[in-house]
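Tokens as discussed.
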């Protein structure tokens, strides 16, 4: 409803102008607005998705209007959605995924920094999940999938943006001690949920995105083997969801992960080779070509 978007936007504008504080102010505004909306519309399915989408849009519009920090607003929005959803007994994981998807899309629409927004969304997800008692690994994967869906599509530009968002998600998970492998799983799941096919371009996007999460994990000193395996698991889960060949999707992800690892070191390549190939989630995973650092 446009009315909900406007209400949230106006509340955000007033709050930021009044206090200058963003994260807590947005959290409270969002949780209150969402709880009120869901009590009237119902807390599941389409009503939940539409409500969190409207709330996220209002947050980004309001923050942009007063020149506020979109990253901090995003963090507050995710935490507020988790709090508001819990208050009305809604499905938290669906709410997280829809919220982060909407936040990333709305940020892209206003020309904001989607990587920063993705990072802060992940931080908000992890902190918010612990406060409302849902499993962190599941919330992390849901947020990551939503963020990548917010980018949408395939092709060079979308792949580049997805890579930027993926790096932001890994950084966010690392910053607050979240499980990076779960983030990688969600990232690759999000790619397939966005494309809904396994064309040549989609396979290239899977490979490039898997490579991005491996490099991002190396940059934060994380476990690249766990990340690579998570990426392959996400590709398999996504392929099964949309009804395409899971072995082909897994192969694309593993190949991209191994290529990125080979660019890091021979040792990294060996770790990823062991972790991301063979039988994973009931699928035989093979890479298309050997990659190693000469």
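Sequence:
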């Amino acid at each position: 409803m446009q009315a909900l978007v406007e209400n949230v936007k106006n509340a955000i504008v007033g709050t930021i102008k009044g206090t200058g504080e963003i994260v807590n102010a947005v959290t409270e505004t969002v949780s209150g607005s969402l709880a009120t909306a869901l009590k009237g519309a119902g807390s599941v399915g389409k009503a939940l998705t539409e409500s969190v989408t409207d709330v996220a849009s209002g947050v980004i519009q309001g923050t942009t209007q007063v020149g506020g920090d979109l990253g901090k607003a995003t963090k507050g929005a995710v935490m507020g959605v988790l709090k508001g959803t819990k208050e009305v007994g809604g499905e938290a994981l669906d709410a997280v995924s829809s919220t982060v998807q909407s936040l990333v899309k709305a940020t892209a629409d206003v020309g904001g920094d989607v990587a920063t927004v993705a990072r802060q969304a992940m931080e908000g997800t992890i902190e918010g999940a612990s406060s409302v008692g849902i499993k962190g690994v599941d919330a992390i994967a849901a947020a990551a999938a939503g963020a990548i869906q917010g980018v949408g599509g395939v092709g060079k530009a979308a792949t580049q943006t997805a890579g930027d968002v993926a790096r932001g998600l890994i950084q966010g998970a690392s910053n607050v001690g979240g499980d990076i492998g779960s983030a990688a799983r969600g990232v690759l799941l999000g790619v397939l949920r966005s494309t809904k096919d396994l064309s040549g371009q989609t396979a290239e996007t899977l490979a490039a995105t898997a490579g991005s999460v491996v490099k991002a994990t190396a940059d934060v000193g994380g476990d690249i083997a766990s990340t690579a395996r998570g990426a392959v698991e996400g590709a398999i889960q996504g392929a099964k969801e949309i009804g395409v060949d899971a072995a082909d999707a897994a192969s694309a992800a593993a190949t991209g992960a191994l290529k990125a690892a080979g660019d890091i070191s021979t040792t990294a390549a060996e770790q990823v080779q062991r972790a991301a190939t063979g039988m994973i989630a009931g699928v035989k995973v093979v890479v298309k070509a050997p990659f190693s650092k000469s």
